[in-house]
């Protein structure tokens, strides 16, 4: 007999799966408040906000946070411009090799980070490009572009091409057409893509390890802290921060694209 | 042609090729100022490409286009005094009705109060009032059509292009909008260029019709010309329906030895046929009631011929009947351009 109601076993395994995925995150949050700083004793002997003030006072955390924030901001900005341009070109024009170009664009997110990282590192070496904030941004931009491109291209495809023609027909120039017709229709997709790109860049580790010189981004700082622990719960405090910074943009992106479903592309 | 002799749009040997596809292939025509000009043809016949060439969305591969005496090749769409009503209306979904209509004024920097006043005037011209604040998604198909018209007319273009604007509407609304377009054309005195694949629409609305096939114009003329005096088999067949006689068959029907068109409604059956120039005996194959008329299939000279009988004239299957038509009903044509 068929029933819309899932079986108890299915429900339990679904709940079990979700717990398995999110339990470790909960643990990290809990240990940000523990009073014990040498070992991860469970349950924590006591709860305190002490580590938040310790973290607040550490300049190395602030330096790493600022760097990560700036890198994410620049990489996202770069991705927004290039990703939108690529999406506009590939969603409309028909040209030889279009599908290949689109595949090459998406490749960085499909490739393991370590491959992208090594490839970029040897490319930078060949170009005699010193490792710097700039090389980190370039590395991050490779996958940030994909995210923006994917969001924008889906929206462009829903946008009736006659809208742009109508704008030109009514006397608008290219800039006015972009400003008054294209941008309002792809705006939420760009915001969603941009937020996702920012979140991806903000917590990226693998590509960064290959493209950074002496710079320490926040995730790299955390990795270093785990190897030689001092004031262990401080790392957890930072982890909570990273979660917050990446979680909210992703949630916002989710809501924005969901709403985008109702924004009609054509007007038939 | 209307009374004014000025030329609104001129095409001289214009071609537009896409790779190996000759979408438009050596087209010549002239549209008079204030004329209601229809471009009629099956899909892929090049009529829409011609419209896009006038609008500036396409540039000719070869040939010369003039709009009001000004060379149009190389002129971008936003530099032409021509506006389009798109097949899918292309209303801006994120803007209100009023802002959609005022768009052409907004991008030209007309101050808000002035452009809203003129947009409201355009909306009242198409009889759509009180919808200013709505979004296109909140309108019915007929209302969107009116917004698209108002938006294209707000700046009083020299030429209004209409790309199958009635295709998405149901029959009742279509007829209403056809009258509306005729009224607007008369009222504004603008040049209208109308693309359609519906021959009835073209015949009933246009001053002149250009029939397209395979990227070429096969005939240009008044609706009467096109319908009563088709120059090719293709036109006779595409515009209305017709009995097409080969050069061998035509003499047996009272014509000359050329391709000949004989319209179903020109064939009279029974007593009415007595006064006609050509009389034959026919056998009734069957009849189909169509409301105002009865479509009657006949066998004449061994050939199946379609006639239109009055609805009151019922004929039995297999019955013999006298049929007749005037010499003028037989229209000789070129055999070319028949393949659709």
Share in β-strands of chain A: under 5%
Which strand order do you get reading across the main beta sheet of chain B? 6-7-8-3-9-10
The largest pleated sheet of chain A is described as:
none
Low-confidence stretches of chain A: 260-268
How large, in whole angstroms, is the Cα Rg of chain B? Answer: 24 Å
* Computed Rg of chain A: 23 Å
Q: Helices and strands of chain B, in N-to-C order? A: EEEHEEEHHHEHEHEEHHEEEEEEEE
Binned strand content of chain B: 25-35%
Q: Could you name the CATH topology of chain A?
A: MetI-like fold
Please give the count of helices of chain A: 11
**What's the SSE pattern of chain A?**
HHHHHHHHHHH
Q: By helix and strand content of chain B, what is the structural category? A: alpha+beta
Structure commentary:
The complex is a heterodimer of chains A (268) and B (340). By secondary structure, chain A is an all-alpha fold. Chain A has 11 helices and no strands. Chain A has helices spanning 8-31, 50-57, 59-92, 98-110, 113-126, 133-158, 161-169, 174-202, 206-211, 218-227, 232-260. By secondary structure, chain B is of the alpha+beta class. Chain B has 2 domains: 7-233, Rossmann fold (3-Layer(aba) Sandwich), CATH 3.40.50.300; 235-332, Beta Barrel (OB fold (Dihydrolipoamide Acetyltransferase, E2P)), CATH 2.40.50. Chain B contains 8 helices and 18 strands. In chain B, the strands form 4 sheets. In chain B, strands 6-7-8-3-9-10 form a 6-stranded mixed sheet, sandwiched between helices. In chain B, helix 2 crosses helix 3 and helix 2 packs parallel to helix 4 (141-153). Chains A and B meet through helix 7 and helix 8 of A and strand 6, helix 2 and helix 4 of B.
